[in-house]
Amino acid sequence: MSVVPAPPQPGSAERGPEQGLQLHLLLTPPPARSAWRLVLARMLAMCTVELQKLRHDRTELYTRAVQPALWLLIFGETFTRIRAIPTGGIPYLDYLAPGIIAQSAMFIAIFYGIMIIWERDSGVLTKLLVTPTPRAALVTGKAFAAGVKSVIQAVVVVVIAALLGVSLTWNPLKLAGVAVAVILGSAFFSCLSMSIAGIVLTRDRLMGIGQAITMPLFFGSNALYPVAVMPGWLQAVSKANPLSYEVDALRGLLLGTPSHLGADFGVLTLAAVLGVTAASLLMGRLAK
To answer: What is the pLDDT of residue 191?
Structure first.
């Protein structure tokens, strides 16, 4: 003889306090965040996603440490012996170390647009662009992630330079200023790369343009030699090159050489803001 199942009891009469709380949470919408808190949360989320990739695969971090080490070991040690470049009374290896930090950060950021194109090809970017996340928050999160990666790379170069006997400051405030300068510089160059990606739309074109502009940006700055020894036309290029302001700030903070920190950080901040704006405007072209 089969047993007829008992009909469900009315929920309100049998519901315990925990079930009532769960039902209340489901029916009550969460409190709305202010606009700036929402944008900041989305930026941090985008940054966290980018850094998770580095956490799962640290190969990039190790391989990128080889080139700055060779610059310091071979180029720096050789030109320190030659004494052909005026450095204001400091060893050339010391003069070179901040330039190599800036170069390493730029090399990480300048090809960041390739990641955007890869995300477009795999469909990830389209899904991100249909969310309520503002494009500026998406771009800023990726730019900040490039800055954090560059800071990690800068720490590696600072350790190598210290092992080679470079006289660097260990003042925490100055080191914090170094991190800010590296993040701002990397944010600009990563946004420059994402802007180029929004124009050329393919990885091959972006690789070619990236390789074409990387070395002129490096040699057209004060990373290897003072601006005063450059020809006039190259001095004009150096003054318009954000990398020069990043190197000047790093050199002043790490070595205590005369610098223009106010102008350096002002130019880097302005360049980063313009870069985020341009990359945000061009981001929609990648989704088409």
So the answer is: 93
